[in-house]
Amino acid sequence: MSAFSTQLLEGLDVMAAVVDTGSFGKAAELVDLSQSGVSRAVARLEARLGIRVFERTTRQVRLTDEGRRFYEEVMPLIGALAEATGSAAGDAQQVRGKLRVNVDPLFARFILAPRLGDFMDSCPELEIELRSKDELGDLVADGFDVALRFGHPQSSSLVARKLFDTRVLAMASPQYLQRFGHPTDPRELELHHHKCILFREPVTGKPFPWEFQQRRKKLLVQPKGMLTVNDPGTVYSTCLAGLGIAQLFELGTEEYVSAGQLVPVFPTWSDHRFPLYAYYPSRRYVPRKTRALLDFVGKLVD
């Protein structure tokens, strides 16, 4: 038992604060210590563990590889201990604390934000920080509890859990269709007669091809367009303005369709779906606050 003490627990609290804030100075404010006190607590923790926990430069503080492994293994256990303590105190159903979420910008703006009030009402003691980011990044080193991203998961040490699929539909405004006509086959989009709003893939720098699905039949199209953008929000706004046909997620566009501002162009080619995944550090323990968010998001397409 000598290797485990309240000093270690205090050191873990300080370590978590540094990870969450990204600096010793901000961590000091969070745990009510001086900056030198934070440095001493981290030094004591490193001495006890026999590893370097942080790489420190004049501009940033980052977990070392050993520090990251330790954090990923130990912090979920500390969280489980805190949650069990709360349950023993008659607090089993309460979701509280701070939840930091790395979220896909498109999902944040058009899908999550309009519905977030219901989740906040159900968890009145939970403080939520949403950070819209184009890339997943280093979830642990950046201090996030969970990430929500569209697209199929890549190889990673993180747990990837699919929350739902949403249909991907080609849409246009009534003004565009009145001016350029209503195509009846997706392959017509490869002709110069129609104008498509293209979205640039971050990895290749080239516009994404468009996939259409009709039951088991799939069709890949290279649409023609004069406008290429790299911001999902701009795809929506330019499509609504009548500048072209765009591929949009069905989830988040229902109100535009109901109001007659957007029209699905190929209703018989509407079976293509795209997933939303949640990413988090540990499969062994998922904090109650994270589980609450994932349960809420997973029900958005019910």
Structure summarized in a few sentences:
By secondary structure, the protein is an alpha/beta fold. It is built from 9 helices and 13 strands.
Task: Describe this protein's structure.
With 302 residues, this protein is an alpha/beta fold. 37% of the residues lie in helices and 24% in strands. The protein has 9 helices and 13 strands. It has helices at 6-21, 24-31, 35-49, 65-88, 105-122, 174-180, 232-240, 254-258, 288-298, and strands at residues 54-56, 61-63, 96-103, 125-132, 146-150, 159-172, 197-199, 210-214, 217-221, 227-229, 246-249, 263-264, 273-280. Strands 3, 4, 5, 6, 11, 12 and 13 form a 7-stranded mixed β-sheet that branches. Strands 1-2 form a two-stranded antiparallel sheet. Strand 3, helix 5 and strand 4 form a beta-alpha-beta unit. Helix 1 (6-21) crosses helix 2 (24-31). The longest helix has 24 residues, at 65-88. The chain starts with 5 loop residues before the first helix and ends with a helix. Mean pLDDT is 85; it is low at 88-92.
The profile of the biggest β sheet is: 7 strands, mixed
Helix share, percent: 25-40%
Low-confidence stretches: 88-92
The coarse silhouette is elongated
Tally of strands:
13
Please, how many helices? 9
Average pLDDT rating? 85
N-end to C-end Cα span = 49 Å
Instruction: Indicate the proportion of strand residues.
Output: 15-25%
Please give the radius of gyration in angstroms: 24 Å
Structural class: alpha/beta
